[in-house]
Amino acid sequence: MGKLDERVIIVTGGAQGIGRAFAMRFAAEGARVVIADVNGPASEKTAAEIGEAGGEALVAVTDVSDADSADAMARAAIEKWGRIDGLVNNAAYFQRPQVTVGPVEEITPEEWDSVMAVNVRGPFLCCRAVLPYMKERGYGKIVNISSGTFFSGRSTTQYVASKGAVIGMTRTLARETGDFGITVNSIAPGSTASDPERDQSRYEGRVPDRAIKRVERPEDLAGAGVFLMSSDSDFMTGQTMIVDGGAALN
Amino acid sequence: MGRLDDRVIIVTGGAAGIGRAFAGGFVREGAKVVLADINGEQAERSAAELRAEGGEAMALTVDVSDQAQTEMMASETIAGFGKVDGLVNNAAIAIRVKHTRAPLEEIPLDEFDRMLAVNLKGVFLCCRAVLPAMKERGYGKIVNISSGTFFNGRENLVHYVASKGGVIAFTRVLARETGDAGVRVNSIAPGLTASETEEHDIEEFAARVPNRAIKRIEMPEDLVGAGIFFMSAESDFISGQTLVVDGGVAVH
Predict the structure, then answer these.
(1) Is B249 a domain residue?
(2) What is the CATH number of the domain that holds B66?
(3) Which of A220, A124, A194 minimizes the C-alpha distance to A166?
(4) What does the pLDDT average to over A74-103?
(5) Cα(B2)–Cα(B5) distance, rounded to whole angstroms?
(6) Chain B, nearest residue to A175 by Cα
(7) Per-residue pLDDT, B197
(8) Which of A209, A235, B34, B178 shows a CA-CA span of 20 to 30 A to B69?
(9) Given pLDDT bands bounded at 50, 70 and 90, which one contains residue B198?
(10) B161 contact A CB<8A
């Protein structure tokens, strides 16, 4: 018996990194998972791993910044399983080459727009796509992935602004959807070693700031994800939970 | 198989109300619980109920504002169950204890002192009592119960709200101090919760409902999921945080 038995949960950006860790854990807790990712082959690989572990997964290749694509994602879940219980808005631009790290004068307006399109418009469109189904059933769990950098301000303007917007959206949407039995919360991870191909020393640079002094792994976030997708958090909405080993304190 | 199998957890103020709900949830997840409460008889009745359900539970009479009693609480827990994995600092002068609700000038000084002694120094003393045992084992989970009133500045309760703000500050500092020892410290801030009480009536609970995203009265059971989460390994990379569980009044 899992914490998420029967629940149908969409994880955007679910093919790799943090999204993949969520998808694997949700499936292990009994959920049926939709891997909604722009990277089809990586999505198939994660879905296959879930299947091998005895779980159920569906791939919906999705560009979250595109309204038609987000709508198709929701329809795919409904056609396969008839319901949507949860949505984790995890897909985001967060590192090079999509996100340039630099002073504001060096960030091009084009990059600003593309980061906002994925990181802010993406969650907006995905919520918009799933909410009618959640409202119809009178139940839903939405988690938006923000970032510890919103609290520390230690990153680059276009990225941090997008992650602040996610928290704003979380708060407003929570108030709008409470009457429909829907909870909307946010998780703010610290710098997480989600990309094995990157220089790992960059992740170690954040360790001294933490109460728990080690590198953050995608798996460190899975427990919070399960909690916020489960009925254990049904009276909690509009909140942001920092999961970063105690660097920022909220 | 529960998420708290074999964990030994102390719940202060565990005899009734929110503390009792936590204890029930923890036992269902496999924990052994210690109900530490100033009302020893009620704590014993609640512990007996939990044992009747097949759980392991022990009652202790503890005034959390008394250093010797908090040290007894820790040593009796270790004597009875061999270790301390978790501490929920829930005991407080709150809804179930009579207190003045009035503007600042009308709060009696001795009541202000007592409020801080129980609600803030009590947290300090209980942490002080259990930390050596947690540090020795290199693992521990502490949850301090704050209050949604800290976020909305509820009027006519300056002594209470100040004590609950202190709890959040305390949580943050202790998290940084104890991370290296494997101890995590977090806080839960409930909304006005319908614990059994003579001080508040149903109209008062109902009056808070329109401010919520989830428009119903908050019950002790609404907090149990967050308590289990913070006592379990699921939250092992979370420390120093405050989780508001109030149906979406304060958004934090």
Answers:
(1) no
(2) 3.40.50.720
(3) A124
(4) 96
(5) 5
(6) B213
(7) 67
(8) B178
(9) low
(10) no
Give yes or no for a contact between A105 and A147, defined as CB atoms under 8 angstroms apart.
no
Per the structure, how many domains does chain B have? 1
Residue B230 lies in a domain: yes
Q: In whole numbers, what is the pLDDT of chain A averaged over residues? A: 96
- B252 within some domain: no
3 state SS of A139: coil
Q: Could you tell me the residue range of the domain that residue B147 belongs to?
A: 8-244
Out of B160, B170, B205, B230, which one is annotated catalytic?
B160
Q: How many CB atoms lie within 10 A of CB A219?
A: 14
pLDDT digits (tens, 9 = 90+) for A89-112: 999 999 889 999 999 999 999 999
User: Is the CATH number 3.30.559.10 carried by domain A8-243?
Assistant: no
The one-letter amino acid at A63 = D
Contact residues on chain B for A249, CB-CB shorter than 8 A:
172, 175, 240-241
- For chain B, give the mean pLDDT: 95
Within 10 A of A4 (CB to CB), how many other CB atoms are there?
24
Residue written as tokens 């010797």? Answer: B68
ipTM of the complex in this document? 0.89
For residue B156, tell me if it sits in a domain. yes
Q: Specify the DSSP element, H or E, that contains B70.
A: helix B67-81
CA A41 from centroid of its chain's CA atoms: 19
Q: Which residues of A touch B142 (CB under 8 A)?
A: none
CB-CB contact of A166 with A144 (8 Å): yes
Output the six-digit token pair for B157. 């309760």
DSSP code string of A2-23: -TTTT-EEEEETTTSHHHHHHH
Confidence band, pLDDT 50/70/90 cuts, at residue B190: very high
In chain B, DSSP finds a helix count (H) and a strand count (E) of: 9, 7
Q: Give how far Cα B32 sits from Cα of A85, A102, B47, B83, B84, Å.
A: 33, 52, 11, 10, 10
pLDDT-based confidence at B199, cuts 50/70/90?
A: low
* C-alpha torsion sign, points B229, B230, B232, B235: positive
pLDDT of residue B96: 79
Q: Which residues of A touch B (CB under 8 A)?
A: 170-171, 174-175, 177-179, 183, 210-213, 216, 220-224, 226-227, 230-246, 249-250
Neighbour tally for B211: CB within 10 Å = 17
